[in-house]
## 1
Amino acid sequence: MMFAKRAELLLKLKKPCACIADCNAALKINPDSGKAYRVRGKAHRLLGHWEQAHQDLAESQKLDFDDDTAELQKLVDSKYKKIAERKNQERLRSEQRKEKERRRRKEEAQRAYEEAKKQPSPGAGYGGFPGGGFPGGFPGMPGGMPGGMPGMPGIDSSMLSGIMSDPELMQAFSDPKMAAAMQDIMSNPGNIAKYQNDPDVMNLINKVMGAFSKFGGGMPGGMPGGMPGGFGAAGGGSGSAGASAGPTVEEVPEATNVDEVD
């Protein structure tokens, strides 16, 4: 009781901090001292500590109700409610800012994802041969046909889809030898002369040209002068010009008279 009485005197002397110190000492001795809570609440009110004043006065009224304190409590409660409302509004604004920032980041991530889906992955597009070549999915041809195959523009996706749907062609491309030969020829059409005596490679070229003829009217302007050895006609796209270009094998006339033979 001594600390509580001294705290009350200090409050009258307008020394709220010393008053609060004595009230704390009194409450350590007797935690149920309503007078100590009441005096400390009044001291907090003088300091403008409205939240602490609200708590102490409410506790003092529960332990020891006082009519005079009830009027003071109304004033403190009105201040406390305004402070609580302001803090609540600040909390809501902070949450709204965080939610807005979260949505903004989510939208940016979604836009980046959509743009990434629209971007063709390296080596994945048909690209009309130049710049893209055959897609990397051709078995046995790592990385696809070489990018920018010279002289092979204008190949659309329907042509390539048709070629890739042909099981015989796909099986041939899975052979490393055939894949290397086609890669060599596509990088330089003139290299076809190296394979004229290889029936397997020439047969594959015939099949490829036949596929182009079926889906798009022949090899698209890529093999200058057509394929040697008459393969330009098989492609259907080079015509007579294709037959006249490239190395050809001169035909040997058959002997018509037995007497001419020694």
## 2
Amino acid sequence: MSSYNVIASQNPNNKKKVVFIMGATGTGKTKLSIDMATRFSGEIVNSDKIQAYKGLDIATNKATEAERRGVPHYLLGFLEDPEEDFTVQDFCHHALMAINRIIANGHIPIVVGGSNAYIEALIEDPRIKFRANFDCCFIWMDVSLPVLYKRVGKRIDEMVDKGLVEELRGMFVLEKEAVDYTTGIRRAIGAQEMDLYFRVEDRIEDEGVKKLLLNAAIQDMKDNTCKLVNSQLGKIQRLRNQLGWKMHRIDTTCVFEERYDHKLEVEDAWKKKVLKPSLGIVSDFLKKNKEQEITQFSTAKIPQFLFYFCFLYLFWSLACEYSPNFLQRSNGRNSSLAVKGHGMKTRSSKSNFKLSWNLEDEIYKVIETGMALGFDFDSKEMWMIEILAAAKRKLKMGRVKMVKDKVLMA
């Protein structure tokens, strides 16, 4: 793709938020993403390049409909052609469209998957300018390697029990002498490892030999998956150490250690050790700058005359009410602005109370307060000049009298 469509954030302090869940295969990314989506009104964008293809649901370890719990998933099983090469550029294009759509719907995009090179391209490609438009939260699911290797092996055994061999046999093409396992869905774990077994199984009558070949193919799957784990972890470390990505590491080792006797204990460990801290991280991330978002109003979005009017009306109202903060007996000559009571009853029996204060000083105070609240003033001096000019324009209304350098509102 030569160009990318991004919903640009008009306010750099109010970027749209995107959550990324990263980690090696088998660390619990899918489960966490769904748990998180159900709690934060999130929708999931798949970043696993093999899961983007339709089919081989067991081999690619896609979440089932039941496991998704009604959470919308994007880029999951949407490619019909198993031979199509789903490139990094293709992913960035489709991922941006999905993220923009999710945000437009008022939900939180959660990008999850193990293809770290694809995520890196999305974040770092200078043409996309992702960080300029989106605020990112990276969660890294980590498991100690001895425990993860063992888990990977166990998971492949479970996949075989679910029908992995039969699923792979369905896509095997016997008539081809050489099959390209570097593109398309054939990059899935198991496709290449089972190739030799599928080619010779019909020519072997000895069931014992056939079983040995099958076990060897399954062991190759486990070994190659462990190599994939190492590669994925290496990329994550490079993103952290060389590119400076800030990642929140969640250690899920305890959940996958075989020290629990019942599934309820595993689920309890997941909630306490993984889900709870992850939800805390994302909750803080989503709240970040929330107060600023509420109070940060750019004056560029408000017609200037409206701001001037509000300013003048505010102090006119204060004058009418004889605010104790500003009211004092006029000292005559030193008052830059004197506002007399104009027919309204005062709280004092005396009627000669005047509101006296230096207009320029008060304008500066209001501007400083506005800046603290998030208003954008390019030039305090220019704002003061404009506000004074607005006050002078009220001469035409007959409510203001100019006496040399004084402004008298009667």
## 3
Amino acid sequence: MKLYKALATAMVATAATMAAMPAGNAAVFYDWRNYNEAGGIHDTHGDWDVHHLGDMNDRVSSIRSYGERYVAYQDENYQGFSFDINYRDFNSLEGFYEGRNWWNGDWNDKITSLHRKK
């Protein structure tokens, strides 16, 4: 009986997690840290490339990758400094300094374009 109860609990938790994930392959980029949607979001909906984030340009503060691999670029059309998201979530880009030849402070509010990797 305990095993049945544990399995039932695990199935409910899994279903709740799956319901919260976006449909299809996607990554979500949030204007505020801690995945707060109040400031705005950009959901890739599985798009391979986003050459310019539009209203979210230079406003991304947190990222949920949902298992996707993206390269984030400082400039439009996949130019400038970049870093690999590689399946990672970032609850805050404040204080995150990783990237190729990156020297310009942290990545908070600096992402302009995205390329999805296969």
## 4
Amino acid sequence: MNILFRICLMLFLLEQSTSSQELKWRLYPSPTTANLDRIKMLSSSVGFIVSEDSGLFEYDGKRWKRFLPSLPGKINRAAFDATSRTDIWCASLGELDQHQLYHFDGENWRRVYIGENAIISISFTSRGLGMISGISSIALYDGRTFQLIAPPTINDISQAIAVAPEEYFVFESNAPNGRNRLFRYHKNVWQAIREFPHGVRPLSFESPSRLLLLLGDTLFHFQDYQWEVVSIDTIIREIHSLSMVNKQDIWALRGVNDIVRFNGGKWTSISIPAVSDLQSIAMISSEEGWAVGANGIILHYSRTDSPLVTFTNLSQVSLKKLFQAHALGKLDVIGQEDRDEYGVAIADVNGDERLDIFTVAFSLPNRLYMNNWRIVENPYKWMAEEADGRGVQGLSSMTQDRPANQTLQDIGCAFADIDNNATQDLFVTGYSMFNEMYINDGDGYFIEGARDRGVAGDSLDKSNAAIFGDVNNDGNLDLFVTNHVSSNRLYLGNGTGKFTEVTDSFNLRTERGGQGAVFGDVNGDGFIDLYVANWSLRNYLYLNQQGRKFDEMGESAGVAGEPFWKSQAPVLFDVENDGDLDLFVTNRVTSNRLYLNNGTGTFHDATNDWGLRDSAASYGTIAGDFDNDGDLDLVVANIGPNVYYRNEGDRFIDATREVGVKQHGYNTGIASCDIDADGDLDF
């Protein structure tokens, strides 16, 4: 701390030797030594700094200080906006690795639920006008409520602007062809304003009059719905943060320690104190601005000297933690404490008549828990994690399209005997890579062979779920895979472990949005039908036409739902014990739904009648007779507390506390089995 004090004191004394009226950049006292990622100034006396390491800071016209009360969770630098000190919106990363939207109203932070777990951009023009973009969804704010609308593209939205109650702009990113587009939403209609070549960067996206994009050596300005070239210069390639006073006065950060200014038709490097790793710049006028960067650095551009940086200021700084403590679980089945496991599947993989558990981890290696029930005496060793030794960790091998030993961001999984050799093989869906098919050697050791088997899919599919079933009644298992940004896929199996994609010929081509899926014969014709839950689209019920194709009948059958329910997981089961399959669907944005089968493959909504109306954000679900009373119960995995619904014959009762299965967390996948072979279902 003494060294830091001396450095700041020396810089201050150097500043004192110049006139206080000189317009220049000066070091300003900082309330932290953490990295500062983004600055937003509303006026000369109100501003905010976002630090993903240390939280939110504010400027009150005299000094920078920590914003109180503190925001729950870790703030997201990209998803932040404010219209005043009493109207602040931001996303934080909670302890369960989900983005949570918060609003500060001048007194307290209040969590606002919009059904999106990955918030990308926030834009508020006034207290009653805002826009939030996430994965496959956009929410418009009118001062009271959020309205979800369909996005104009299946690709990511990197930037958003709320202009007027009926006018919004969004900028696309990660388009497969590299040509991202700018869209305008006006009077309930999306319009592509312009498509840009690969490499375009939107660096100022504050309002339509301050929209600047960089492409190679060229800086573009958007005005009156037209694009004009502002400047062509090699300096532009190195710019990473922009702030526009007007079209003829633009400030930018170049490299790690240079501030440049475009004025009079040319770029000029501006003298600044000796700092490095500047991250964000915000100009209030041609004579006042701020820049922030690593290690708590704050620079102020004005004619006024900065306050003295004293030892008292610095002693109040909370140093960034260098270490993080992690607790270890008592049971080996818990594995690592990292809460990253997503999907789960259960099967006896090594033929010892004990069910083993496989879980996929999104950003960590997958896990295979081998069941040692009654083999070992220590009850804490019943489940042994052996994914690495058995070849199912989900780490990439060295190929031309990916480096070695990287996690594949797996998300879903399913066991099935695809080659009819009485062993359980394993299919895993990849969200950022190709899908994986692990072939079992009979002893529970696996070799990956998705490409050879014809089921790898495309690396851009972002696959979610996989289910097996015999769709054409030929005695061989077929495979259906849901995809988030491309069409779902159906593969017919030939019984030897090889598959052929038949998506188009079976009338299953879609655009995007696929989440969970389930096979079941809903109309009693002897062929399994298919239900698919979607995000940002209505759900699909495909009726099997004698194993030759599927016809989509979701709306006419009464089970399509609405586009913005963000449906997650469906399950088909006989709720009433009347001999036909009923349907339960979990949703992220609205209540889950129970549809009772009328006996012919059409349904009616019985959610309220059966006591299943709820307000939870739900993921996975399973049905099973957990209390051995002859009817099927439900378990729902939620963001928050899970729920166990006991079937009473004519309604469901929430018996979560009664049966002792209350669990709170970010719960996604769920599966059931008799893990300890005692005759009842576990999950």
